[in-house]
């Protein structure tokens, strides 16, 4: 499992881009997570699924609401990562009003999630392989903090925790 001091794994993830620019076309655009984090401070939070109750009501909205504070404290970017496709993540970002605040990153085949070792088996619930709920602060591609939730919990991976760690 990924731990503090490890480099972010190299894996292709996707982002649904609404406006063409900076070499990105409209629609899903793939990029290497490790390469994209290089030279930046990135606040990453992952969750089991888009449009799911805790993820939609608490986890993602907390980061959207705290985006300015996180950036003021030193985060260059904020990523929301889930094992969903880029179209679903794009629709969810639109619904939550995340544009310009949080990048909603799709790990459709769970390549990044598997590489981190932070998988969650929800096959019995009809959701397949997903990501555990966690947050981490990545500085120049290296994990500086990692907050992994116990199954079914939302206690340590919220925006307030990561903001305090970023300021600390």
TrEMBL record:
E.C. number: 1.11.1.27
Function: Thiol-specific peroxidase that catalyzes the reduction of hydrogen peroxide and organic hydroperoxides to water and alcohols, respectively. Plays a role in cell protection against oxidative stress by detoxifying peroxides.
Name recorded for this polypeptide: Glutathione-dependent peroxiredoxin
Keyword terms, alphabetized: Antioxidant, Oxidoreductase, Peroxidase, Redox-active center
CDD domains on file: PRX5_like (cd03013)
Organism: Roseateles subflavus
Family: Belongs to the peroxiredoxin family. Prx5 subfamily.
Upper lineage: Bacteria, Pseudomonadati, Pseudomonadota, Betaproteobacteria, Burkholderiales
Coiled coil ranges: none
InterPro entries, A to Z: PRX5-like, Redoxin, Thioredoxin-like_sf, Thioredoxin_domain
Classification via PROSITE patterns: THIOREDOXIN_2 (PS51352)
One Pfam family in the UniProt entry: Redoxin
Catalytic activities: a hydroperoxide + 2 glutathione = an alcohol + glutathione disulfide + H2O
Domain Thioredoxin: 2-168
């Amino acid at each position: 499992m990924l731990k503090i001091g490890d480099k972010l794994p190299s894996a292709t993830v996707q982002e649904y881009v609404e406006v063409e620019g900076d070499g990105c076309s409209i629609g899903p655009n793939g990029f290497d997570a490790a390469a994209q984090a290089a030279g930046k401070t990135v606040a990453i939070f992952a969750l089991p699924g888009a449009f799911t109750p805790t993820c939609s009501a608490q986890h993602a909205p907390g980061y959207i609401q705290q985006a300015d504070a996180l950036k003021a404290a030193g985060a260059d970017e904020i990523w929301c990562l889930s094992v969903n496709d880029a179209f679903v993540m794009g629709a969810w970002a639109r619904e939550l009003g995340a544009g310009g605040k949080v990048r909603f990153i799709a790990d459709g085949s769970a390549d990044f999630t598997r590489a981190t070792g932070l998988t969650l088996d929800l096959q019995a619930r009809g959701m397949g392989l997903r990501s555990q709920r966690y947050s981490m602060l990545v500085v120049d591609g290296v994990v500086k903090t990692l907050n992994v939730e116990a199954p079914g919990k939302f206690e340590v991976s919220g925006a307030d925790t990561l903001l305090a760690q970023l300021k600390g």
